[in-house]
Design goal:
The protein has 247 residues and is of the alpha/beta class. The chain has helices spanning 16-29, 44-48, 65-70, 92-97, 105-113, 130-138, 150-165, 185-194, 210-213, 215-218, 222-225, 230-246, and strands spanning 3-7, 34-38, 73-74, 80-83, 119-123, 141-146, 173-177. The structure holds adenosine-5'-triphosphate and magnesium ion.
Length: 247
């Protein structure tokens, strides 16, 4: 069965884009027909995958299954396609609000795309919004990167409270620690200290690594430029943990 996994967090700058690009690349490397849907107007995932020059049409086209599919473009990586951001994608929130089924539009489009792809990875902008609610409803898994800080953990609890109050029940909500600096005591102890609050925390942790920052230079997923690096191995372990959930 085809699956859709969204990288999402209320907090910005926690590694959603770096993670979704790497995880999608790992799916593609496994031979899965994979799509990365870049729903963030910043367009960073499209840019990393060298798909930002190929964007066709306006944001309006993203709200209908057929016209959304027409915007899909191949990436530089075998088996990996991208639905890149549109130039006017910051309007998407308003466009959604005008629709009768405004809370379920992404689900509708995703249903159509899941007929064509084995896996769909979604990059999202930070924050709570109508678009976020759409994605939270539509995805089979919501994957939340948490940086080992109190503020990051706080936004995890905000998300859980929001899901409850808005009565949104995603297929699965999981979290993982990222940008973990083993030299820092706070980081080393974070998972142990907060595990009881975080039963959804997956075991693999992504270390803080300049290899990941260098993706800005290479514009290639770091798991492909250096597969043996500890950060790439950590993404591989995370990918397996996610796969296990679906098997
Ligand atoms: N494991 C890591 N080690 C070191 N740097 C990282 C790591 N993960 C991400 N970064 C860097 O941290 C910054 C933020 O990462 P990223 O853009 O993936 O976050 P984001 O959650 O997608 O941000 P936004 O909310 O703005 O979309 C980037 O400069 C990225 O290169
Ligand atoms: Mg991002």
């Amino acid at each position: 069965m085809a699956e859709a996994v969204a990288l999402y967090s209320v907090k910005g700058g926690v590694g959603k884009t770096a993670s979704v690009v790497n995880l999608a690349a790992l799916s593609a490397a496994r031979g899965r027909k994979t799509l990365l849907w870049d729903l963030d107007p910043q367009g960073a995932a499209s840019w990393y995958l060298q798909a930002d020059e190929n964007r066709k049409g306006t944001a309006k086209k993203l709200l209908k299954p057929k016209s959304a599919a027409a915007g899909i473009t191949p990436s530089a990586i075998k088996n990996l396609w991208v639905l890149p951001t549109r130039q006017d994608q910051h309007h998407l929130e308003h466009l959604l609000a005008e629709k009768k089924d405004s809370g379920f539009r992404v689900a509708k489009v995703l249903d159509g795309l899941l007929d064509e792809f084995e896996e769909i990875w979604i990059d999202t902008p930070p924050g709570l919004s109508l678009l976020a609610d759409n994605v939270l409803r539509a995805s089979d898994m919501i994957l939340v990167p948490i940086v080992p800080t109190h503020l990051s953990l706080r936004t995890w609890h905000q998300l859980k409270a929001h899901l409850m109050s808005a009565r949104i029940k995603p297929g699965n909500v999981s979290a993982f620690l990222t940008m973990v600096d083993r030299r820092r005591i706070l980081h080393r102890n974070f998972a142990e200290k907060h595990r009881s609050e975080l039963p959804e925390l997956l075991e693999p942790q992504i270390p803080y690594a300049s290899l990941i920052e260098q993706m800005g230079d290479t514009r290639m997923p770091s798991v492909l430029t250096n597969a043996r690096h500890p950060a790439s191995r950590a993404y591989m372990s995370l990918w397996r943990a996610i796969e296990q959930h679906f098997s």
